[in-house]
């Protein structure tokens, strides 16, 4: 039920903005002033704190676990192991293969082994150190390129292959014979962390009916519930999840983290339990971007027409399945990039290792394949003696282009328009003598000697929403009531607000469709139907469809009542009024609603898709595509290997800018994450499978001094199948930003630079070797 107090508070916040306006976020002021309550800020009387004991080995058998010393510590309330899991001992996004707590072996460094609940966090952490685990270390499998070899120890009992995706399009043998120029390249992408600032946290509260309520930061509450309830041995109706304040996600909150552990302890103790990771544990508590090793072969005519692409991708999925089967599929779908490629042979393999589990991260496989494709396109341009921009324009995808999966692009495909916008943008002026404008910045490493400038381009394409035959849905309940004489709309969905602004968009849609100036968006929870995940750049599309559908049902009822009362057939809604065909007020919406509450629940589905054929990869797998392009301008000190990104310009088609200010923020954020992957971000795992840099001291992310000016060219080509013509925005900037920067570095240095992220020694040492050969 919607409380009157909540509606009154919403009504006092002022007029809601409509679709297409740069609405201010309702949580914005609270976040920048430190007043916003994130999940790690949760507190309730009588709660205890929990922590996790994690494996120091990447591969080991567990001989025994002795918890007696930990239990004997003052202030400790419970110590749990796998024997205490009340229901199913395994869970997982796509396959239930990940143990709640390790049973008889551990498969990666940092795997959870035991839980401790105590009066305070420090007592819990100290007690966890007293748990005695007798391990038998095993030799870990850490090289993804060797795990398919016979004789390599399988990580899971079923073998080391997660999935092999095959796509066969056209006639590769004939195409190879026709190609006049062929280039091959091998490229590698490191393991990137989502690096959200809010660590995993949640508060579990046992309920009187024997169930539990969990307040948690998440990307998909209903998927959490689907995995959580069986592990607790409870029916779903006794497990209630509410979204707590989320401090960033980027895919890292799709899988479970604190969920089962906090609820297990709360049910065992019969009191609230809070679990909040510190930064060190957070690096072990969520999945990461898949490292990738890729081999590309491009064949073209002498005038630069692409004839074929042959590619092999190997993604390291780590110890458990998570979303690897879908990530490798998504990587393969877009191996050929935003280009018209008539013939393709693509093999993608996701494999198990004893490295940390990998899963969803912004771009979801398309980041890796875009890097390989765009790097090899520049290599092809060099071989052809052609300008890289001209090569891209000559092969740019258009509406009607047939993808390697056999699907024709039936929506806008403005690849050429995006690239031309970047080409025509003036270049930034050459660097001056200001230290902050030079590579190395305030470190005073150079005054301009040895600095070379490079310009690089890249373009990316990715599907929006769920593909491959998934019936994607989103549910919304909208209610309209009169509070203090004014109409107030309330919107209830399970959509996860992860910082992308979906709460604001829902308010904008309700205000636009119902013509009301006051809208409240209720907390997301599992008491309403599924909204799907805040991933795949789908949430704005899907939640907008659901809210719009519910609002239009209510709007029709309002207009019916108004037409009956006024006798006028042509009416509309706006400014809390019913308007006639000339825009004149006929009556107030409040009059029509009266003491009623008009409500409707609507379930939105996108158009059907198909799974791809397992042998050929053919099928109409996608509902829509999004495109982004980048131009990077870099200065490089070729002697020291230091890089300064001078400018990172973007051109992107967004369909309809629902909230232009928020759209620009999404594009800037995605571009910065791509910059991080290009130059600094990588989780380092040694040969023993141990993570070497689980901290923001050693895992580097871009700071304000690393982020260049990022001019944005927004294009709005309405999509024919979406609400308002909108398109997904969040992921495309991550596709093209990384290869644009690396292509600029190659242009500046003349080096192949196949790996991302690039290191200073990759440039400096390679340059030194080249200079030695010249001498």
Automatic annotation (TrEMBL):
Lineage: superkingdom: Bacteria
Aldehyde oxidase/xanthine dehydrogenase a/b hammerhead domain span: 33-139
Pfam families associated with the record: Ald_Xan_dh_C, MoCoBD_1, MoCoBD_2
Record GO terms (molecular function): iron ion binding; oxidoreductase activity
Signal peptide: none
InterPro entries noted in UniProt: Ald_Oxase/Xan_DH_a/b (IPR000674), Ald_Oxase/Xan_DH_a/b_sf (IPR036856), Ald_Oxase/xanthine_DH-like (IPR016208), AldOxase/xan_DH_MoCoBD1 (IPR008274), AldOxase/xan_DH_MoCoBD2 (IPR046867), AldOxase/xan_DH_Mopterin-bd_sf (IPR037165), Xanthine_dehydrogenase_dsu (IPR017609)
Name this polypeptide is given: Xanthine dehydrogenase molybdenum binding subunit apoprotein
Source organism of the structure: Amycolatopsis echigonensis
